[in-house]
Each structure stands twice: as structure tokens, then as C-alpha cells.
Write a structure and sequence with these properties.
alpha/beta; six-stranded mixed β-sheet; two-stranded antiparallel ribbon; globular
């Protein structure tokens, strides 16, 4: 179960990039750092500095990667618009950060399969997104209004993805699912 934009209502790559450039992703902004703190805290509790990560969809301000690097972690960056070098996609990782990115996937099945392939055994894909729930007042829900949010997930969507890909699903909080690769 999920919500997706009709094909004729999906922005072009240029329109997407223009929208992303309006985001204020300052790596020194305390509010932005607080927003990604659950990622950083989870990683520092479950991984050591010898383990490597990837910030997938890092955007213009990869604050989680910067915060982890400040703590001694190695985190590579990939973003099709702002860090387009595909070299990091040739490696595998102990953890992958996917913060406010999965709702931009035009083909979620392809992207999640790719992300699973980038995880080492016992690696974790740590995401952040707003989930649709039937209790929401959909007409007033802000998250659907971003034209670059082309797929909105429901908890059942995440359960399906985990089951389909053989991943273990848990949550840091209601907006932060974690997919663990078991083998």
C-alpha cells in the first residue's frame, strides 16, 4: 500500500533539481543537525568507526555524513544531482543513510533492490520519511504537496519491501525505518 503520483504529474529532472536547490540544507544549522540526530545516534550506537557508510541522496548539505565524519566515521556521498560520481555505488557498506530521499524514488522497487545490493551482510539501510496513515487528514497533510514526492509510503509498504527483499524491518521512531540485511 502506497500513494504515487500519476506519470504525467512527475516533475522533470530539471524541475526536481530546481526544487532541491530551494532547500536550506546548511550543515551548520542546529535545527537541521537535530533533525538528523536520530540517524547519527543510531549509527554511533550500532557501528564503530572502522565500518563505512554511504549517504544515498546526500543533497546539497549532507549534514548526517558531516556529523558522522566529525565523530571519525567514513561516509561516502552519492546524489544523482549534487554528488553524481557513481564510484561509491561500486562498494558495499555497513550502513546507508537515506534521509528524506525514498519518497523521491520514481521506481521504488529498483531503488530498494539497488540499496540492498550496496549493503554488507548485517548492514543497515536507515531511512527517514513521513508515512501515510489512514488517520491523517489527507487534504491538510503537507507532505503530499511537494511535487518531488512521487511515492508516499505506508507502514504496510515498508513491511512489503522488507519481506520482498528478505530484510528485517525495525524503527528508530515513527519516521525512521531501518532495514537490516541478514545475509
Amino acid at each position: 500500500m502506497g500513494l504515487f503520483r500519476a506519470a504525467d504529474n512527475i516533475p522533470s529532472a530539471n524541475q526536481e533539481k530546481e526544487r532541491y536547490l530551494t532547500h536550506n540544507n546548511d550543515v551548520n544549522d542546529p535545527g537541521y543537525r537535530n533533525f538528523v540526530a536520530p540517524f547519527v545516534n543510531h549509527i554511533t550506537r550500532h557501528f564503530n568507526t572502522d565500518q563505512t557508510g554511504l549517504d544515498y541522496g546526500a543533497g546539497t548539505g549532507p549534514v548526517a555524513a558531516v556529523m558522522l565524519e566529525e565523530s571519525g566515521y567514513e561516509v561516502k556521498l552519492y546524489d544523482p544531482f549534487f554528488h553524481p560520481d557513481p564510484t561509491p555505488l561500486d562498494d558495499t557498506y555497513d550502513f546507508i543513510i537515506c534521509c528524506e530521499v525514498m519518497e523521491h524514488f520514481h521506481q521504488p522497487d529498483v531503488e530498494f533492490e539497488k540499496l540492498k545490493g550496496l549493503l554488507k551482510p548485517n548492514g543497515q539501510l536507515i531511512c527517514k520519511t513521513d508515512l501515510y496513515d489512514e488517520k491523517l487528514n489527507f487534504e491538510k497533510w503537507y507532505y503530499k504537496n511537494d511535487p518531488t514526492h512521487v511515492f508516499i509510503y505506508h507502514q504496510k509498504s515498508l513491511e512489503y519491501i522488507a519481506k520482498h527483499l528478505g530484510l528485517e524491518l525495525s524503527y528508530i521512531d515513527s519516521r525512521t525505518p531501518v532495514f537490516k540485511r541478514l545475509s
